[in-house]
Amino acid sequence: EGNKTVIYTLANENSLKKTIYLETRDQIMDFFPKKFLSRINRVYIFRKLTKEMLLEILKEEYRKFFNGLLNDVEFPISLRVENEVNNFIVNESMDHTEFGVRLLKSKFDKYIRKPLGRLKNRGMIKPGDKIFIRFSAEKGKVIFLKEKNDQQPPS
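RE: above sequence
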């Protein structure tokens, strides 16, 4: 038949979810043969992730990562991350929202987890160090600073 776009303007979120579900179910039933539909147990509706949602998910990634650092008795360090870093990572993740949270986790690994691992492996971070993670707008990248000598480790 062709694509059908439906715009919902309902105030009540639960009512909106039900309306979207019913409309989607009707579209699926019109499109697929009944033999195929009998094999489907459940239909999930995914909505586009907003910046606020991605920031909450990023907070959870930090929590899991920090808990791992705190439990590392052989290499305890302290980290503090500026909000600009979080905004940068989320903005980088919003380029392709169709990938959902996977892209956010990939950017977290790219800008936080892997650089910290490299710094640790090169001996630039020692147990007990306090690390500040900042976003440099001039350089357009995430930078890592140590409290002890306040110098940026080379990347």
